[in-house]
Amino acid sequence: MAIAEAQNEVITTADGVPLKISLKKALWQRKKTALLLVAPLFFFVLITFLIPIFDMLLRSVDNSIVAEQFPTVVVEIRNWELNSTELPDEATFQALFKDFKAGAIEKTISRLGRRLNYELSGMSSLFRKTARKIKKVETPESATETMIALDKKWGKLETWRLIKRESGKYTSSYYLSAVDAKKTSDGSISMKDEDRQIYLGLFWRTIKLSTAITLLTIILGYPIAYLMATVKTKTSNLLIILVLLPFWTSLLVRTSAWIALLQKEGVINDILVAIGVLSDDGRLAMIHNETGTIIAMTHILLPFMVLPLFSVMKTIPPSYVRAARSMGATPFTAFRRVYLPNTIAGIGAGGILVFILAIGYYITPALVGGTKGTLISNFIAHHISSSLNWGLAAALGAILLALVLILYILYDKIVGISNMRLG
Amino acid sequence: MPGDTPLVQFVNIQKSYDGEILVVKDLNLDVAEGEFLTMLGPSGSGKTTCLLMLAGFEPATYGEIYLKGKAINKVPPHKRGIGMVFQNYALFPHMTVSENLAFPLEVRNIDKSERETRVKRALDMVQLGTFGDRRPAQLSGGQQQRVAVARSLVFDPDLVLMDEPLGALDKNLREQMQYEIKHIHENLGLTVVYVTHDQSEALTMSNRIAVFDDGIIQQCAPPQVLYEEPDNAFCANFIGENNRFLGKVIEDYGDTVKVEIDNNAGTIIAKKVKVEGVGVRCTLSLRPERVTVNPEPGALPNIFSGVAEELIYLGDHIRTRFTVCGHDDFIVKIPNSADHAHLKQGDTVNIGWTAEDCRALDPSD
Description:
The complex is a heterodimer of chains A (423) and B (365).
Chain A: H1 2-8, H2 19-59, H3 64-69, H4 73-76, H5 90-106, H6 109-117, H7 123-134, H8 143-150, H9 157-165, H10 173-178, E1 181-183, E2 189-191, H11 199-230, H12 233-244, H13 251-262, H14 267-274, H15 290-314, H16 318-326, H17 331-359, H18 363-368, H19 376-385, H20 390-414
Antiparallel strand pairs in A: 1-2
Chain B: E1 8-16, E2 22-31, E3 36-40, H1 47-55, E4 62-67, E5 70-71, E6 82-85, H2 97-106, H3 112-125, H4 141-153, E7 159-163, H5 171-188, E8 192-196, H6 199-205, E9 208-213, E10 216-221, H7 223-228, H8 233-238, E11 243-252, E12 256-261, E13 267-272, E14 281-286, E15 292-293, E16 302-313, E17 317-324, E18 327-335, E19 348-353, E20 359-361
Parallel strand pairs in B: 3-8, 3-9, 6-7, 7-8, 13-20
Antiparallel strand pairs in B: 1-2, 1-4, 4-5, 9-10, 11-12, 11-14, 12-13, 14-20, 15-19, 16-17, 16-19, 17-18
C-alpha cells in the first residue's frame, strides 16, 4: 500500500514545486536559444518557400477572375440550369451587357476571354471582338438581341454552359487539363482526344527518364563510391574532389559541353565516322532526344548518388566482408549477402535524391532534350513564361509535388526514412 | 596431440606494405594441431599482419605458408577453411544471430535441417540458446563476442584465428571470456592462433606465446618459460613487471656474471643468459616477487640496503617502491603473509635476491 501511495504522490523539488514544472522551467532557456537560432532560417523559408508553394497550390484551383469580371452575371446565371435547352433569360443578358461593357471600358475583359479560351477555343476572339464593338452600344431594350447581334456565339448554349460551369470561385479545370481530361458541355468528365493528349505522356516520360537516370547513377556510382571508401584517405580525398569537380563549372557550361560532344557534327560522331565505325550518313542522333537527356542528366546528378553511397560505405568495416570470406563465401556471395544489404541505406538515400532532382529538372532537358526529351518541368516553365496559363502550371506543379510526396512515403514504408543517410 | 607435420607452418615469411619497410622480417613459426598459440606484441609489431596473411587477406611478399602441409599462398580465403573472430566481432547487422551463424553453413550448401541443428548446438555451446532471433545490435558486448566465437566454429574449421577479440570488453567480462574461450579450445580440441597485445590474456590462455617486436619473433615459448626465463630484454620487459638495471660485465664465472651497475652504484651477481664476455654492456632483469626483504646476512649473493619510498596496499600483496643502487623505481611485491615485514615509508632495510632470479640479458636501448 505504501508503495502504491508513494507512486501516486507528485514528486516535488525542495521548494515544493512539482518536479516536472521545475524541469520545464530549467529547459525553457535552452529551448529559447534553439528557437532563436532557427528563427532567421524559418522566416526565410516561410517567406520564400512555403508561402509561394501555398500560393501556387491556391492558383491551381483559383477561379476568382470570372466573378471579378462578371460580378452580376454569376449571380443571375444561378437561375439557369446547366442542362437547359433554352438560352438564359433577359436579366442574365442584361447582366452580361453591363459587366462586359464595364470590363471593356477598363480593358480588363480580355483577361477573362483568355481564361475561358483554355476551356473552349474561340472564346478569346469572341471576347476581343465583342469588347471592340460594345463600347459604342448604349444600354439596349433587349440585351439578348443586342449581344447576339454583336456575335452569334452569345446565342449558343455552349458558350453559356461554359460560363455557368466556370462561375464558381474554385475550378477543377486546371487539374483536368493537367491530366488530359476535360469537362464535356453537360458537366461530366472525359478524356481529351488522343491526339490532343500531352501531359499524361509527359508525366510518364518524366517518370521513365528519371527512373532510368537513377538506375544509371546507381550502376555508375556504386563502384566509384566503393573505391573511394576502400582506398587510403589521401587517394579518397582526391577522388572526392574529382567527383565534386563538375560542381565547380556552371551547369550551362557542362550541358553545352555535352551538346558539343553528342551532336550530329559533334566530337563523338566525328571520331566514330573517322575510324570507320559509322558511315557519314549514319551519324547517331544522340542529342535533342531522350538519349541526350539521359546522358547529360546522369552526368550532372552522379555526385548526388556517389556522396551518400560513399558516406554509408565508409561506415562498413572491411572485417564484414573478410568475415564472410573466411566463413567460405566467394567474393560475389560476400558482396551480395553481406556488403550490398549494408549499403541499401545509401542506395535509398542517393536514389531518392537523384530521382527527386531528376523529376523536376529543367535546364538540361530544355537544352539537350529537343522535343522528345523534354520533361514536365519544361512545360511548367512554358506555361509560366510563354503561355501565361499560371493555373495550369500550378496544377502541373502540384501533381509533381504529390508524386514526390508519394514516393517519399513509399520509401519511408519500404526502407524507412530514419535509415537514410546523406553524409 | 601434435602430429608429425605441424598444422600451420610459416616459412621465411616477409611482408611489406609500401616496399620500403618490412612489417614482418623473416618469420618462421610452426603451429601444432590442437595448440593454442598466441601472437603477443605491441601495436605495429606485425602480429595482425601475420594473422591476415594466414587467413588469406594479405599476400605474403616473400615466403610460403603451409596449412596441413600444403602451400596456401594462392588459395583464396574462402577455400582455406579457417574460422576467424574479429576485434569488432564483424557480426552482420542485417541478419539475426541465427542467420549469422547459419551463414557459413549456407554458403557451403548444407541442407536446412542440418543447418538448424548445428546453429542450435553452437548457440548452446556459448550459452545463448534463446537469443537466436535477436539482432546483433540488441546484444551486449559480451554476448556479441560469444556469437562471433560460435560463428567462427559452427562450420568445424581446422583452425580458428582470433584477432584481439576481447579488446572491446571491460576487464571483468574480458577475464570471464578468456576462460570461456580456453574451455571451448580444450573441449573441442581446436587449433587456435590468437593475437593480442595484452600479456595477461596471453599468459592465461596460451599453450605457447610468440612475442613479436619490430617484425621479428623475439621468443616463442610456453607462458611459464616466457615469464621465468625470458631470452632477451624486450621479452623480460614486455611480459610481467620487471626491475631493470643497466650495467657492464666485469667478470665472467661461466654460468654467472658479475655486473657493475652504471654510475658505480654497485655490483650484482646475475645468471648469464644473453651476454658474451667481459666488458660488454647488459640489462639485468629481476621480477618484483623474487626479492626477499630482510634476508639472513650471507644467505644471498646480492644483498643491498634500500629505502622504502612508497607502499601501496593491494590486498594480497603490498607493492613497495624502493631506492636501491641509485634507482628509485625498484619494485618489490611483499606477500601479505602472517609474518611479512611491516615496513613504513622511509624505512631502510636490507633486500636481496639469488643470482638465478636476476638474468643478464642483451643491452636494450
